[in-house]
Amino acid sequence: MHELSLTQGVIEICESSAGGRRVTAVVLLVGELSSVVPEALEFCFEACSKGTLLEGARLIIERIPARGKCHDCSNEFHLRSYYNSCPSCGGHQVAIISGEELRVKEMEVD
Amino acid sequence: MCTVCGCSPENQHHDHDHDHDHDHDHEHHEHGHSHSHGETKNARKIAVETDILSKNNRLARENRNLFFRKGVFVLNLVSSPGSGKTSILERTLHDLRQKLRFAVIEGDQQTDNDAVRIAATGVPVRQINTGAGCHLDAHMVSHAFESFNLEELDILLIENVGNLVCPASFDLGENHKVVVLSVTEGEDKPLKYPAMFHNADVMLLNKVDLLPYVDFDAEKCKEMARQVNPDILIFDVSSKTGEGMSDWYEWLAAGIRQG
Prior knowledge:
The complex is a heterodimer. Chain A is an alpha+beta fold.
């Protein structure tokens, strides 16, 4: 349940950028490979935001597709997990291009 | 309040009484910088663009810089509960403590049982109890090593909370993550918990003395680990019989030499 620590991080980041204003919405970027369960983030967000500038804010989670690039044939493809091999040549040396993101993208304030 | 990281005494973890007499530099302060879209100060939308783990990553970077300056080789041992992390540490400390200067940080939700086992080897140890927490983070570790004189250490071994999911996301400032998997577990753990095996540099396949008695295909397991992480270095070991431990020890010694 590391979503709890992550949510506390989100609240800290947003409060430090909000200038004391009430936050009405937060947009997170969450990569498909980031080991984060969006529903758990939502659950923790509701609990952790109480009594903060983010209380009652909408949490919007944008999922970032995981993409890999094959080291052997340079093919770029959608990764479903860290262990997907290249669908073109079968190679296992795959560089992760995207999908590990865990970012606060933006927020709306009053 | 801690002047390094701003933590309060009510912080969710606790390890020991500390006097906050830090001997290390802290490079304050890498806040996520935000700016308003639009020209007015009443703009409703604020671009934040900050990694959620940025605070942990900053503290981990500070730990890493300090370890590097002091010449301490640091490993973060991760696994599911019961794979034998503590037994591997005990054996390693028993066999090498005359040659190398060790310290250990033990992470568990509750109890200091593991720290008591490590203390029995004569090596300095600190226990972190995370309470409800499922992983160690860079901040907890930075306080736990305050009591060690890093100048007098070759190697710091950090035993993380037994959990193959959450500790994968939290950098502690270590040189390497070492994942332990025992042959009494499922051989497909690397595929079930790919983030951890992807992020680890080394895998210790423990309890290999039990291979004749269990349905565990070691080669298939290693193949799956390499599927997730083609560069992972794998040692077959038994902390009970000592089988394979010498290769692990050589790797440790080489890591210390390389700094």
